[in-house]
Specification:
The complex is a heterodimer of chains A (about 240) and B (about 425). Chain A contains 9 helices and 10 strands. By secondary structure, chain A is of the alpha/beta class. In chain B, strand 1, helix 3 and strand 2 form a beta-alpha-beta unit. The two termini of chain B are about 20 Å apart. The chains are: A alpha/beta (about 240), B alpha/beta (about 425).
């Protein structure tokens, strides 16, 4: 069964058509990336997959559950990290993780285990006892990423997961995503950083103007377009 | 200097956004509207006040007393007792007993009775009836002049100064007690002014808190995380309403304690402590001291008003893009609140045109503002109906908020202020 199946997805905001009939699939344990410039329709697509926006038309399934009919059920299978999201500033990192574990997990013991796992994944150590308002952007992002994956969702949707992170933090985050995918978690990731995506993802869809211009593994795309990297691929396709 | 003006220009452009200008214009409109309503209601405070006189003496002296009332800017209506019941609003009734002229003629002090009949506890209505106290001075002056014209003896100076004893009484909601009118009005006014200030502050702060909370969740995208979580959308709305209602309760308690202490201090300054505390027992007999059920009824009405504001505020918060625009989003609520707070303080709502009263009743907060008056007048039905109406408004807006949260509107709906195009 596919983790995510998107067929002929269209999203309109009034007269503006942000997504123009795109389709792709994400397999279990796969990291699938949507790359493209700002305004390409990446975030809109991710928000629709995360059930917070509604598709104007098209079919979306998360592990076989139709998002129009079974959005509530699908939400228990997925977890979403918005781009440049914040957290509740007056909570400590640990309080935030406990709160979110309570939302995502019903069983008390499992929730406790999730918090411990998230605390480890975040790498924030004793700073988890501090209020989030004292965190740097990188620390907040790592806390939120740990929150996203702590309940072991079957599909994690990450919008620009390394946005605003320095090189070391970005490398850590990429390593974490790869390790979790190796454990069977599926990822739908968006990024405008094509070099990062080349390292991170199993397959890549290049999105521009609300359409998928091409979709393959990074190596397949480079070979097909005789390019040295994904940036070159994008430039050639866009022309 | 050029750089200074460049900076000032930049600051003005940053500050004079629709979020700042819209509330300013809105406040101006509300005050203009209230001014127009006031001017149409006529009769400014300080104009002549009607007093109903029952002259049971019909002597030359009583006639002189009645004529003197007119000179004291009191509009005199001679009447039979039955007419009093037909006149709307508050009444001041002066009763000159039979034998009044004879007693004075014998050099004995005579009594007259002044009764304040309270049917409207609005501040303006209370202020009007308070003016009837001018009658006391007028009566004494009339009688003294009458005696001087009859060549009263110089040794009768104390009698000339105080030839008449004024017996004061207040009638309210079927109860009648001999209590000083001025102190009774002072007590009622303190109750009537205290509650609206508390209610206004609590509703405004609670509503702003919710609008800002929803706007902040949208801006920080914490709302997106919650919307994509397995928690029910309706649960999100109910949790937000419950939490903000709890905080609003805390606000209410804090303001009530603070305002009671403040009003107590102010009342103590207006009259000697003994004078203020003395009339408490008669006031209780008049039904003016709020009982526990009375307080409970007012609290229910206030809470219903707060819940209305919170449910409206959630919807307004959804319309806000971010924290900055949240202030503009609060404007419609602030307008309604100001209108329903100020108007009953400034006009006789019971004597207002039906359209104005309908407009006031349609605003759910008015019922909370007027609940203390209704309870003091034992108009429990009006409070009950008000609470039912407020519950209806609350449920309608809670359902609307729940509906907006259940779809994508919570993220996509926003104020359209595109008529405003700041210079690039």
């Amino acid at each position: 069964m596919k983790a995510l199946r998107v067929v002929d997805l269209v999203k309109r905001y009034g007269d503006l058509e942000a997504v123009k009939g795109i389709g792709f699939e994400v397999s279990e344990g796969e990291v699938f990336a949507l790359v493209g410039p700002n305004g390409a329709g990446k975030s809109t697509t991710l928000k629709i997959c995360a059930t917070i926006l509604e598709a104007s038309s098209g079919t979306l399934e998360v592990f076989g559950l139709d998002l129009r009919r079974d959005a509530a059920k699908a939400r228990s299978l997925l977890s979403y990290l918005p781009e440049e999201a914040g957290a509740y500033r007056h909570l400590t990192g640990l309080q935030y993780l406990r709160f979110m574990a309570g939302i995502f997990v019903d069983d008390g013991d499992r929730a406790k285990a999730c918090v411990e796992e998230a605390a480890r994944l975040s790498g924030l150590g004793p700073r988890l006892e501090d209020r989030i308002k004292t965190y740097s952007k990188g620390m907040t992002r790592k806390l939120l990423l740990a929150r996203t994956v702590m309940a072991r969702p079957r599909l994690a949707i990450l919008d620009e997961p390394t946005s605003g992170l320095d090189v070391l933090n970005a490398v850590e985050v990429r390593g974490l995503v790869r390790a979790l995918a190796a454990g069977g978690m599926s990822f739908l990731v968006s990024s405008h950083n094509m070099l990062e995506v080349e390292f991170l993802s199993d397959r890549v869809a290049i999105l521009a103007g609300g359409r998928i211009l091409d979709c393959d593994t990074a190596a397949g795309l480079k070979r097909r377009h005789s390019a040295a990297n994904l940036e070159e691929v994008f430039v050639r396709i866009a022309r | 200097m050029r750089k200074f003006f460049l900076l000032v220009g930049k600051e003005v452009r940053e500050l004079a956004t629709p979020q700042v200008i819209v509330p300013m214009v809105a406040v101006m409109i509300v005050f203009t509207l209230i001014g127009k309503i006031l001017s149409k209601q006529g009769r400014p405070l300080g104009a002549s006040q009607a007093i109903l006189v029952q002259d049971r003496d019909n002597s030359p002296l009583s006639g002189r007393v009645v004529a003197g009332l007119g000179a004291a800017r009191l509009e005199v209506f001679l009447m039979e007792a039955a007419i009093a019941a037909e006149r709307p609003g508050n009444l001041a009734v002066l009763v000159i007993p039979a034998g009044f002229g004879e007693r004075i003629g014998r050099g004995e002090r005579a009594e007259v009775e002044l009764v304040a009949v309270l049917r409207d506890l609005g501040p303006r209505a209370l202020a009007s009836v308070a003016q009837s106290m001018r009658a006391e001075r007028s009566i004494k002056e009339s009688v003294s002049l009458f005696l001087l014209e009859r060549k009263a003896s110089v040794k009768d100076v104390p009698f000339l100064r105080e030839p008449v004893v004024l017996k004061e009484a207040v009638a309210i909601g079927g109860a009648f007690e001999r209590v000083p009118i001025a102190q009774t009005l002072l007590f009622v006014q303190s109750q009537i002014y205290l509650f609206p200030v508390v209610i206004f502050m609590v509703i405004l702060l609670s509503a702003q808190m919710v609008v800002l909370s929803v706007a902040a969740e949208k801006e920080n995208k914490t709302l997106e995380i919650l919307l994509s979580s397995p928690i029910g959308r309706r649960t999100l709305v109910v949790a937000k309403l419950s939490a903000s209602a709890l905080v609003a309760l805390g606000f209410t308690a804090a303001y009530m304690v603070g305002m009671r202490s403040f009003m107590g201090a102010v009342s103590g300054q207006l009259a000697p402590a003994a004078a203020v505390s003395a009339p408490y027992v008669p006031l209780a007999k008049l039904g003016l001291a709020l009982s526990l059920p009375g307080y409970a009824l007012i609290a229910m009405s206030v809470m219903a008003g707060i819940l209305c504001a919170l449910s409206v505020a959630i919807v307004l918060g959804i319309l806000a893009d971010d924290v900055k625009s949240a202030h503009a989003a609060t404007t419609p609520l602030m307008l309604l609140l100001m209108f329903s707070y100020l108007l009953p303080l400034l006009v006789d709502t019971r004597a207002s045109p039906a359209a104005l009263r309908a407009l006031l009743w349609a605003i759910p907060f008015t019922h909370a503002f007027l609940a203390p008056q209704h309870v003091l007048l034992k108009e429990y039905g009006a409070v009950g109906l008000g609470i039912l109406y407020q519950a209806g408004v609350f449920l309608a807006f809670a359902a609307l908020a729940s509906r907006l949260f259940s779809g994508e509107s919570v993220l996509t709906l926003r104020w359209n202020l595109r008529f405003w195009k700041p210079r690039a």
